[in-house]
Amino acid sequence: MSTNTASSPSGVWRNTLHCSIRYGPGCLAPSLRSVFEEDLALLSPRPSRALIITGKSLSTKTDVIHQVRSALGDRYVATFDSISQHAPVEAIHEAVELVKRERIDALVSVGGGSPIDAAKAVSYLVHQERHGEDDNEPRNFIPSIAIPTTLSSAETTQNSGFTRDGKKTGVSHPALVPRAIILDGEVAMHTPLWLFLSSGMRAVDHAIECLYRPGDVQWLLRGQYLAALRELFVMLRRCKEKPDDVDTRQRLQIAAVTSLFPESRKGALGLSHGLGHALGSSYSIPHGITSCLTLAGSIRYTTRHSTPDRLASLAEALPFVVSSGSLAPIDSQDLEKLREQGNRVADEVDRLVSDLGLTSTLAEYKVPQSALRGIAEHAAGPKGKEDPKLVDEIVQLLEDIDQPKSRA
């Protein structure tokens, strides 16, 4: 009997404070009422004063916020709609003051990743003022409910990213996970197609980088990530063809959640996320677009710098991102074969970006060549200081984004 356990599955998975995920076209109003009556009923005192956190577009150009207000009924207190892209910290501080002034005890975030992350940050900062850093009792944090309109998956995590002085920063705590998620395909219809599709590429980024996250290949959820990839690759193309199909948007919302749920870990998932954090807030690039720019190159980089188990995990994604392919187990010792399949996954990502009409360049977002090394050093982290060649490779990855190429 073999005693070699070097590549055997092992690890730790931790659940989060999510109580429920409610989904379906038209589910917003009954779901929101149920969340307060069921999911938040065990909190003491039971939340009764809700603040909606959102952005100007949803607030002024759609009836979504009116629907949320009506569903909240007597629980509704106010709407804070000053959250813009990448959640500037100044707006978050304004929301904190409103929460304190109006004695808010529940936050309802509506929109993409920025309002959802902003609600988490507000909860964190109010808790810090009231209870201090050493208190970790979840009941002492203001609970939030997330109603996403994009595919950013911010609703699945305990992490809150926001912008301070043009740089991405953030906070993280297990109690910041939204207690409930409401996925309503009819609400998602209000999101412009380009934004919905590009945020879907962010979900693709989540699922792929979860498969090879350094030091943390999550075996328990690997099947879920692979299933999310298949659904995203199929349904994003369908959404491009049929942008007014509610069923397609609903299925994509569910796929986006499963690409990263439940996420109790801190920090960037992998190189593509690290580059996206550095590029997004500094140059006002939507995070979905940063994934379009960096994911394929990051996958190719990863094939050159991964352990066999991470390579095997990435290679297993190939049948799920093409129309056909073998699901037979892969020999984790055949490194050349693993790298070949990993690079084919990158090719399929490039093809999907092209099919969705989302191909772009760093130059389009006025990212200067002189900034690339600093971005690369930020993304490489401590390993880049130990091995400067890694930084050189990431600089090359960034330079290649702007090179004319025929998409695979």
From TrEMBL:
InterPro entries xref list: ADH_Fe/GldA, ADH_Fe_C, ADH_Fe_CS, Alcohol_dehydrogenase_Fe
Domain Fe-containing alcohol dehydrogenase-like C-terminal, first and last residues per copy: 198-399
Lineage top rank: taxon: Eukaryota
CDD domains reported for this sequence: MAR-like
Domain Alcohol dehydrogenase iron-type/glycerol dehydrogenase GldA, residue spans: 44-184
Gene Ontology MF annotations: alcohol dehydrogenase (NAD+) activity; metal ion binding
GO CC annotation: mitochondrion
Pfam name, any one: ADH_Fe_C
Gene3D superfamilies documented for this protein: 3.40.50.1970, Dehydroquinate synthase-like - alpha domain
UniProt keyword Oxidoreductase, yes or no: yes
PROSITE patterns: ADH_IRON_2
Record keywords, A-Z: Oxidoreductase
SUPFAM superfamilies per record: Dehydroquinate synthase-like
Protein name listed in UniProt: Dehydroquinate synthase-like protein
